[in-house]
Write a structure and sequence with these properties.
The chain is of the alpha/beta class. The protein has 15 helices and 21 strands. A 7-stranded mixed sheet has the order 14-15-16-13-12-17-18, with helices on both faces. It is globular. The mean pLDDT is 96.
């Protein structure tokens, strides 16, 4: 069996390991060939020290080199797309096509190239010049490595060594220490090979990109709180994320979390009456897509009890039963989904269909639909908002409009919230108060469309109030917004012209950088 090395300071090195692990094929439950190391604390310390040196060296490189690296890296991924997508399919059981090869991989390279464009243009820095006081400021790099913990459900677009957090940190001028997810180490290794090649080709400091496969829980907490670390980006389970947050907060280190989200949907009465089978189809497709393993999967749907809601629920339950359950990412996802279903039933939710693991090889769970009354939900809103990560959905039936509005006021923070309403205006009286409540509780408010999927758009907010994320003011998707998480505000007071960063000098570099010059956005030189 091959024992794979770690990527440290620009080299593939035999690991200083405290243990080893293998990926598991979710379709069979059998290990995938190849052994990956659990790095020691000493090895992690070496990565942090190398990243600190790289952070200093990056100060002597211009943004164009970072942009060139991101573009070369994207080109390398594209050139090896078939191999990378195939490995991701083996390790996650996510569909090779269209999911991985035709959707997620192009999204990955697309956001790398968007980050390159933003790095080259520099407007994300928000360069600000006050000529009267001769005080100038900009956003700049953090001065240390950024640790990126990727999730299990997006092996390419959110991978610690290729995803949005990675691209944003590099664009901001920081080196990255990627912590690969144990579900897809081989995919991460193939991506790291392309990243290392791009670093060499462009001439960036060798430790600009490093990768460790696994750390102990204690060493993971130490990494995010390390004195020489700049910040951390984390996407994953709430419990693990909060453990890391406590460690980072205790050391005063920034950490940006994407945790859990149930993404509530309200289908208002007139929309429900007119939507019919089409609405059932949209709902079922959204909940079961990717076996429900999307961070924007609609976990809770709220309707007003009526003949129309009865037809909707019956249609959804029938479609759940007929659809073939997809593969889940691992054994822990199966057990976690089962635990959540049991907890929801214990709190009064009625199991309409599903509720058990699928017998046989591989990691699968029955498509599961539950129902609860609005009054029962309002008695235990926190417990009934428990995330059931996977192919499951809970439908709340409110008794009247007042209860419908009341339910909208008790949701925790979420990435998204959606309202379906009558296109002829028949639901307007209800839309206003429900939208007012949801707007405060979600990062992205949708109308008349399911939330599954996240567009890589400058206007996108893939964030939201806790527990969706650790801070409602930041997004993990959408450039340039996502870059600002991994930057420090630098202020220069009466600093001589030749000592200023080029973005803050009198002459506008390239003539195209937008700067806040004496209170107005301008692309001009300082006169």
């Amino acid at each position: 069996m091959t024992n794979y090395p770690v990527l440290l300071a620009g080299e593939w090195r035999e690991a200083d390991a405290t243990g080893a692990f293998q990926a598991v094929d979710p379709c069979t439950g059998e290990p995938v060939d190849g052994s990956y190391p659990v790095s020691s604390r000493a090895e992690m310390e070496g990565a942090v020290a190398a990243a600190a040196d790289a952070a200093d060296a990056l100060l002597d490189t211009d943004a164009g080199m970072r942009a060139a690296f991101l573009e070369a890296y994207a080109d390398g991924i594209d050139a090896n797309a078939d191999e990378i997508a195939e490995q991701a399919h083996i390790e996650t059981a996510l569909p090779l096509s269209p999911r991985l090869r035709d959707v997620e991989l192009p999204r990955t390279t697309g956001q790398l190239r968007q980050a390159a464009t933003a790095a080259r243009e520099g407007t994300w820095m928000e360069a600000t010049i006050d000529t009267e006081t001769n005080i100038r400021s900009r956003l700049g790099p953090l001065g240390g490595g950024v640790a990126v913990f990727g999730p299990n459900n997006f092996p390419l677009a959110f991978n610690g060594i290729s995803g949005g957090d990675f691209a944003a940190a590099i664009a901001a001028g920081n080196p990255v220490i990627a912590k690969a997810h144990s579900s897809h180490p081989g995919t991460s290794r193939l991506l790291a090979e392309q990243a290392r090649a791009a670093v060499e080709a462009v001439g960036l400091p060798p430790a600009t990109v490093q990768m460790l496969y696994r750390l102990s829980h204690e060493d993971g907490a130490y990494l995010v709180s390390h004195p020489a670390i700049g910040a951390t980006g984390y996407t994953g389970a709430r419990s693990s994320g909060l453990t890391l947050k406590a460690a980072a907060d205790g050391a005063g280190k920034p950490i940006y979390l994407e945790l859990s989200s149930i993404n509530p949907i309200f289908i208002l009465p007139r929309a429900l009456e007119s939507g019919g089978e089409e609405l059932v189809g949209e709902y079922v497709t959204s909940v079961l897509m990717g076996a429900g393993q999307f961070c924007t999967n609609p976990g809770i749907t709220v309707v007003l009890a009526s003949e129309a809601s009865g037809r909707f629920i019956a249609g959804a339950a029938s479609a759940f039963e007929e659809a073939e359950p997809g593969y889940l990412l691992g054994e822990r996802v199966v057990s976690g989904l089962g635990e959540s279903i049991e907890a929801l039933v214990a709190c009064g939710a009625e199991l309409l269909t599903g509720g058990k693991p699928v017998e046989g090889e591989g990691f699968r769970f029955q498509n599961t639909l539950l129902r609860v009354s609005g009054s029962d939900f309002l008695q235990q809103p926190e417990a009934l908002q428990r995330e059931a990560f996977g192919n499951a959905g809970l439908i709340i039936e409110a008794a009247d409009e007042g209860e419908l509005i009341g339910i909208s006021k008790v949701f925790e923070g979420n990435l998204t919230g959606c309202i379906y309403s009558d296109s002829e205006g028949g639901d307007e009286a209800l839309y206003g108060p429900i939208a007012r409540s949801l707007r405060r509780q979600v990062g992205r408010l949708l109308n008349d469309k399911m939330p599954t999927g996240v567009a890589v758009s400058p206007a996108m907010n893939h964030g939201g109030p806790f527990p969706a994320t650790g801070h409602p003011g930041f997004t993990a998707v959408g450039i340039p917004g996502s870059i600002r998480r991994f930057a420090a505000l630098e202020c220069y007071d009466n600093v001589r012209e030749d000592r200023l960063p080029v973005e803050l000098r009198d002459r506008n570099p390239g003539g195209g950088l937008w700067r806040l010059l004496d209170g107005r956005w301008s692309g001009e030189d300082v006169s």
